[in-house]
């Protein structure tokens, strides 16, 4: 929870890459908090040592995640579970680390990581 009640567009500043530090998403259809009814549907997920992945290539393996973690210089998961048969377009599953801090550090690097998909 932020100490500020609102973000004021006039308080934005330019970032090193030239982009603005503020963008208004209040009108986006992806905003999960645009109405009280939508906000009530959200489930708060507390930090965990288990991360859920989705939209990965169909043929993703445990070894793929080890290679990505090695490439990014983060700790490998201690356990990988790929769910089978959920979709014909992508795969999903769970990655588990020994500690929450290892999982959260890796999340910072892996979030929105683009995996190579030959098809």
From TrEMBL:
<dbReference type="InterPro" id="IPR055204">
    <property type="entry name" value="HNRNPL_RRM"/>
</dbReference>
<dbReference type="InterPro" id="IPR012677">
    <property type="entry name" value="Nucleotide-bd_a/b_plait_sf"/>
</dbReference>
<dbReference type="GO" id="GO:0003676">
    <property type="term" value="F:nucleic acid binding"/>
</dbReference>
<dbReference type="Pfam" id="PF22976">
    <property type="entry name" value="RRM_10"/>
</dbReference>
<dbReference type="InterPro" id="IPR035979">
    <property type="entry name" value="RBD_domain_sf"/>
</dbReference>
<protein>
    <submittedName>
        <fullName>HNRPL protein</fullName>
    </submittedName>
</protein>
<feature type="domain" description="Heterogeneous nuclear ribonucleoprotein L RRM">
    <location>
        <begin position="41"/>
        <end position="119"/>
    </location>
</feature>
């Amino acid at each position: 929870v932020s100490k500020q009640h609102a973000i004021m567009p006039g308080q934005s500043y330019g970032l090193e890459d030239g982009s603005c530090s503020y963008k208004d998403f209040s009108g986006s259809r992806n905003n999960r908090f645009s109405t009280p009814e939508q906000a009530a549907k959200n489930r708060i997920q507390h930090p965990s040592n288990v991360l859920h992945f989705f939209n990965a290539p169909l043929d993703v393996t445990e070894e793929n995640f080890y290679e990505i973690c090695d490439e990014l210089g983060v700790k490998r998961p201690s356990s990988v579970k790929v769910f089978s048969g959920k979709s014909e377009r992508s795969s999903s599953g769970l990655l588990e680390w020994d500690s929450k801090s290892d999982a959260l550090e890796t999340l910072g690097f892996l979030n929105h990581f683009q995996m190579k998909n030959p098809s």
